[in-house]
Amino acid sequence: MKAAPSKAKPDSPKAERPVRVDSTLSKGLQVLEALARSKSGKGVTELSRELALTKSNTFRLLRTLTALGYVRSSESRSYSATMKVWQVGLSVIGNLDLPRIAAPQMRMLSRETGEAIYLAVPDVLSVIYIDKIESTKPIRSWNPIGGSAPMHCVGTGKALLAADYDRLRDQVRGRLTRFTDRTITSIKRLDADVAETRARGYAVDRGEYRERIFSFGAVLRLPDGQPVAAIGVSLPDVNLSEGRDEEIGALLLRAADEVSESLKDL
Question: Would you give the end-to-end CA distance of the chain in angstroms?
């Protein structure tokens, strides 16, 4: 008598085992993230309540993070994140190879406008230019790769400032240095300018850093929405014919969206 053929079992993926998360590391990162988001320092009691940790556990984590240089304490026993956190973030940005990723869109902007095209990353309350394409016009603006400019008065910087204004507002307040007669030096005026930037989707510098040099900027975002860089167009006011600012703004928004989309594939 022949044995009945066995029924083939359908292939089924093995159940994934849940990842075991180290409790201490997880809590330490929660503390660091909470401090990085804070506009001012936080005390042990406030942090423990916010993160549902015991005070003793919170204090031990803060001492460890302080010893490693990621956190500092003030005389009022308030804790805040240090620039070491920012430096780690900048290293991550550097590894993204943004100039290569943004190159097609920068070439498109150069081809369509003929003006100077910049790629900039944030550095505290300034921006650093990490790539550029020179203008093809006889009258042009100029800034070198590796150069920097204050965030509150150039197109790329104003785009990044608007994207992270809730966190940066208190930091930039009182540091609105004047460079030209058009520089925004009032926090109320800056509030209004940021609102306009957010409504438009791109920032405009109307000769606020250099006399008669206009610049436009749009922010580039990581998949989680975090602003990581800005792409910009810079030109002398004599090159800016009527209605051209809206044209440049539309091109910038297109370029920024395309670069941000490319960052999702990394």
Answer: 60
Neighbours of 183 (CB within 10 A): 17
Taken as a whole, the chain contains a residue count of 266
Q: Is 242 exposed, middle or buried (0-12, 13-18, 19+ CB in 10 A)?
A: exposed
Amino acid letter for position 33: E
Structure tokens at 65: 């993070």
Tokens of 215: 């610049």
The rounded distance, in Å, linking the Cα atoms of 66 and 37 is: 17
CA distance 170 to 164: 11
Domains of the chain with bracketed CATH: 23-81 (1.10.10.10), 89-263 (3.30.450.40)
Query: Which pLDDT band, with edges at 50, 70 and 90, does 218 fall under?
Result: very high
Residue 209, SS3 per DSSP: coil
Confidence (pTM):
0.70
- CA–CA separation, 60 and 2 (whole Å): 71
Report the pLDDT value the prediction gives residue 266, as an integer from 0 to 100.
67
